[in-house]
């Protein structure tokens, strides 16, 4: 029996450290690892369910080729690689390397992920995506306002006296954060939750505001109006550290409590109550989720929300500040997505970045010079998770040849001509970062891959050789075998004075990790101040320099589709991952549509009815659940379920970008509901 230190590499805030017990080559237990102070109580159910996931009979263990009748048959690696090489060479010869489309999602964290793009560069380039499905509107807003995405250590929120969880459902998406929130509550802190639905996160809140979706910017401007009017602002902080206060104060004058209440659909009394808390209770931690920034006006809304911190002097102190994303572990290069440490590829003649992730289907289809012929999807499930599923499917089906590398038969893998099996987190060592805490962790190989599973690095080596790449060309890969991987990782860590032996013991804080962010009050914006007025925002994104509120594109009842469909994350899945497992299904039998009693009554619907959710883009049939905590006019269906469960919620969403950062405006999505 051996016990190994490792960490969960899923796209999740918590990124838990784990202790894994291996007996006779098989994983038999998954336990907490106290070395990660943010997650010392151990993994959630998803983390524990790896015991099923890794050994699941549904796992793909060898290459599979589509048959003439649309099924899949097992083929050898030689046959699979020969076929891929032949297709790639043909596409490159006839249409150039950019006729190959390389798509990656957020399936796993790891430095070795970067080998994929390095391979396609050696191929001569490819077409890939820009933007990100997850968090970019908020990241860019934060950068424009504060200069950088820094945040205090996770446990610092326990020092707050006022905590605002704004559009974040931490009880389900970052449950380890709730321990620190509870510590603050035990010391008398006040908790405010702002969410159109009453989530489990709101259960211990003192105040729950349920704004109309996409109106948070207006709410923030209305709060600023009241704070300035009451003189409850930190004049010294504003004088020394804020750019654009006068203009901002003039803007918020128009956001009277009455107008704000009307726009947001929130009682004026609640807005006044929250403004009073913000004016009187300090320190305040303002923690914004990623769900709220999935609107066409969300970047500007995030900027308006951020402004409340400098106004009240809540920056650079324990228990105060902006909690959104912590990029301290991104020490290996600039951020492309939450998981990829490698520098984003720019249009440099080698890699053409021309397809928007948010508009994936439409942009893939629109590309003509050259048209896309061969696709390679790795670590992602775009047929389920990207907006506008029908357009994504059309674009994938228009390819001559599609390769998908995955652990299981996802909606995307079902579209493939060839599926390659992927490793699990326990089958290749890698170094992973995080985006809530600042620990670097070793995701250790603890067992041999089952069946004929190869890590992607070995797939790229074998494929490169077939394409005529020399060992020099392939020098970006680790040398074959475990020792090669470890040497490769050690070389990446060395400039940061971190060793693999240290990481084998447990998590290590990244060199730049800050207990309290911005304690030096140095903001790396063009002005060196917190920018409420940002010229860069307008120059770069064409938005107003001040973050005024305008309704999102699907801003409100347009008559035809009266309901806002929110498609948040599930407690027991990470997007489409984990949901098929039996242990998860015992707790969460399948998807549903949640609706408040008033909307249900108006349609003559009751709990358990089968309903059709529809708009001009698509339709979905789901069982109805009455949810007493939903704002009227809002319905909810969690994302992650796919064709096996009746179809992805993205059958209904539009391929549209957010105003900042090339994110995806999933929640700008009006629908109606009727009995099926
Ligand atoms: N269990 C679990 N944890 C996860 C994930 C998962 O899939 N499952 N995914 C991980 C990833 S990749 C991400 S991006 C994060 C996301 O973490 P969160 O941001 O917490 O998750 P979401 O569920 O997208 O959205 C949070 C809340 O925003 C609310 N919301 C929607 N629209 C609005 C609005 O207009 N205004 C306001 N104020 N609130 C609104 C939703 O009702 C929802 O409760 O979670 C990470 N952690
Ligand atoms: N409607 C709606 N849609 C959404 C969202 C929403 O709120 N609403 N949220 C969006 C957000 S925040 C995100 S982050 C995206 C997530 O979008 P994706 O990243 O596409 O989602 P996942 O379902 O996690 O798919 C990852 C896939 O990677 C595979 N995988 C895991 N590990 C490995 C590995 O080591 N190698 C390989 N090759 N594959 C691996 C998994 O089996 C899984 O099939 O979804 C977005 N989609
Ligand atoms: Mo995400």
Summarize this structure briefly:
The chain has 676 residues and is of the alpha/beta class.
Mean pLDDT: 95
Our estimate of the beta-strand percent is 15-25%
Name given to the CATH architecture of the largest domain: 3-Layer(aba) Sandwich
Shape: globular
Name the features.
six-stranded mixed beta barrel; 676 residues; single chain; 23 helices; 18% strand; 27 strands; 3 domains; Dimethylsulfoxide Reductase, domain 2; binds molybdenum atom; binds ligand MGD; Rossmann fold; six-stranded mixed β-sheet; 29% helix; Barwin-like endoglucanases; globular; alpha/beta
Architecture overview:
The strands form 7 sheets. A 6-stranded mixed beta sheet has the order 5-4-17-16-15-6, with helices on one face. Helix 4 (114-123) packs parallel to helix 18, helix 5 crosses helix 13 (298-306) and helix 8 packs across helix 10 (245-253). Mean pLDDT is 95; it is low at 335-349. It is an alpha/beta fold and 676 residues long. It folds into 3 domains: 64-133 and 330-504, 3-Layer(aba) Sandwich (Rossmann fold); 152-324, Dimethylsulfoxide Reductase, domain 2 (3-Layer(aba) Sandwich); 563-675, Barwin-like endoglucanases (Beta Barrel), CATH 2.40.40.20. The site of one ligand MGD has 34 residues, from helix 16 and strand 16.
């Amino acid at each position: 029996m051996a016990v190994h230190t490792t960490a969960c590499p899923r796209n999740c805030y918590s990124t838990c450290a784990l202790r894994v017990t291996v007996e006779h080559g098989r994983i038999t237990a998954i336990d907490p690892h106290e070395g990660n102070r943010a997650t010392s109580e151990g993994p959630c159910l998803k983390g524990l369910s790896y015991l099923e996931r890794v050994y699941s009979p549904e796992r793909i263990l060898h290459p599979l080729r589509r048959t003439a009748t649309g099924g899949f048959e097992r083929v050898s690696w030689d046959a699979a690689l020969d076929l891929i090489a032949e297709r790639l060479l043909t596409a490159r010869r006839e249409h150039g390397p950019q006729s190959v489309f390389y798509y990656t999602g957020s399936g796993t964290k790891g430095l070795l992920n970067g080998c994929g793009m390095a391979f396609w560069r050696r191929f001569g380039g490819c077409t890939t995506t820009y933007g990100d499905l997850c968090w970019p509107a908020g990241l860019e807003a934060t950068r424009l306002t504060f200069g950088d995405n820094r945040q205090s250590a996770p446990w610092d929120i326990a020092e707050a006296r006022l905590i605002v969880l704004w559009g974040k459902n931490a009880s389900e998406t970052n449950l380890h954060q709730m321990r620190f929130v509870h510590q603050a509550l035990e010391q008398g802190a006040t908790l405010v939750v702002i969410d159109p639905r009453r989530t489990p996160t709101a259960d211990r809140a003192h105040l729950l505001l349920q704004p109309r979706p996409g109106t948070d910017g207006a709410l923030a401007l209305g709060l600023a109006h009241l704070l300035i009017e009451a003189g409850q602002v930190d004049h010294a902080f504003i004088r020394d550290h804020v750019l654009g206060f006068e203009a901002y104060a003039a803007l918020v004058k128009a956001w009277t409590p009455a107008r704000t209440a009307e726009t947001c659909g929130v009682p004026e009394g609640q807005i006044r109550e929250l403004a009073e808390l913000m004016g009187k209770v300090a320190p305040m931690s303002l923690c914004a989720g990623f769900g709220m920034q999935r609107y066409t006006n969300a970047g500007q809304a995030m900027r308006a929300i951020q402004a409340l911190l400098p106004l009240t002097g809540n920056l650079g102190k324990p228990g105060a500040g902006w909690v959104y994303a912590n990029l301290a572990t991104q020490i290996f290069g600039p951020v492309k997505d939450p998981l990829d440490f490698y520098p984003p590829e720019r249009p440099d003649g080698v890699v053409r970045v021309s397809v928007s992730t948010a508009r994936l289907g439409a942009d893939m289809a629109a590309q003509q010079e050259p048209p896309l012929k061969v696709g390679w999807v790795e670590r992602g499930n775009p047929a389920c998770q990207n907006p506008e599923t029908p357009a994504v499917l059309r674009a994938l089906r228009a390819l001559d040849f599609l390769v998908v590398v995955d652990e299981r038969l996802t909606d995307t893998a079902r579209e493939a001509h060839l599926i390659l099996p992927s490793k699990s987190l326990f089958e290749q060592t890698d170094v992973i970062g995080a985006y809530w805490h600042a620990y670097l962790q070793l995701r250790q190989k603890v067992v041999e891959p089952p069946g004929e599973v190869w890590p992607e690095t070995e797939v790229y080596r074998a494929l490169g050789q077939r394409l005529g790449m020399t060992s020099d060309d392939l020098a970006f890969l680790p040398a074959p075998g475990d020792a090669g991987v470890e040497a490769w990782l050690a070389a990446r860590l060395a400039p940061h004075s971190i060793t693999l032996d240290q990481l084998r013991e447990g998590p290590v804080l990244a060199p730049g990790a800050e207990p309290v962010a911005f304690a030096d009050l140095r903001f790396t914006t063009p002005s060196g101040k917190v920018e409420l007025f940002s010229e860069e925002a307008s120059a770069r994104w064409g938005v107003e320099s001040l973050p005024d509120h305008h309704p999102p594109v699907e801003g409100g009842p347009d008559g035809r589709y009266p309901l806002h469909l929110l498609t948040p994350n599930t407690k027991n899945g990470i997007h489409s991952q984990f949901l098929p497992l039996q242990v998860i299904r015992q707790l969460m039998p399948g998807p549903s549509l949640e609706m408040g009693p008033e909307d249900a009554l108006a349609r003559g619907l009751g709990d358990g009815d089968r309903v059709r959710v529809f708009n001009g883009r698509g339709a979905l049939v789901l069982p109805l659940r009455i949810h007493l905590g939903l704002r009227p006019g809002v319905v909810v269906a969690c994302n992650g379920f796919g064709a096996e469960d009746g179809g992805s919620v993205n059958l209904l969403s539009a391929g549209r970008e957010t105003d900042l950062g090339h994110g995806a405006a999933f929640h700008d999505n009006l629908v109606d509901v009727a009995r099926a």
